[in-house]
């Protein structure tokens, strides 16, 4: 789950602006959906529940299971996938994206 950094490994980042030595904090954020309490009520879910995300993109229809729900005030409905997941589902050419309880 993003934000849970305790016990995570560190790394050394080297770039044109210098070096950063992180003692911890390297994670792969889990796929998740941010939503307001009103959105959560609409979908019939609560914080920490799991949903499915169905992506239709031409002949490449993909369903992601176990999408973590994160509910909070003042949050716009938004799904976070990593780049590899988005590319695998051809998200750039999606014609329909649906959250399923």
> How do the SSEs run, as a string of H and E?
EEEHEEEHE
Average pLDDT value?
94
Share in helix: 10-25%
The oligomeric status of these chains comes to: single chain
Structural class by SSE content: mainly beta
The low-pLDDT segments are: none
Instruction: Please state the CA-atom Rg, rounded to the nearest Å.
Output: 16 Å
Q: Reading side by side through the largest sheet, how are the strands ordered?
A: 6-3-5-4-7
Q: How many angstroms separate the termini?
A: 19 Å
Q: What form results from the Cα inertia axes?
A: globular
Number of alpha- plus pi-helical segments? 2
Which band does the percent of strand residues land in?
35-45%
Number of strands: 7
For the report, how would you describe the main beta sheet? Answer: 5 strands, mixed
Describe what you observe in this structure.
With 101 residues, the protein is mainly β. 13% of the residues lie in helices and 42% in strands. It has helices at 37-43, 83-88, and strands at residues 11-15, 18-22, 32-35, 50-57, 60-71, 78-80, 96-100. The strands form two sheets. Strands 6-3-5-4-7 form a five-stranded mixed sheet. A two-stranded antiparallel ribbon has the order 1-2. A hairpin with a 2-residue loop joins strand 4 (50-57) and strand 5. The longest helix has 7 residues, at 37-43. The protein is globular and about 45 Å long.
């Amino acid at each position: 789950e993003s934000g849970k950094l305790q016990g995570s490994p560190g790394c050394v980042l080297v770039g044109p602006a210098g070096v950063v030595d992180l003692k911890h904090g390297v994670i792969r954020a889990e796929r998740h959906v941010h939503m307001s309490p009103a959105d959560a009520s609409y979908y019939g879910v609560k914080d920490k529940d799991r949903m499915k995300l169905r992506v239709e993109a031409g002949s490449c229809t993909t369903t992601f299971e176990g999408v973590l729900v994160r509910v909070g005030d003042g949050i716009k409905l938004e799904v976070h996938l990593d780049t590899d997941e988005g590319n695998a589902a051809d998200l750039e050419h999606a014609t329909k994206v649906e959250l399923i309880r």
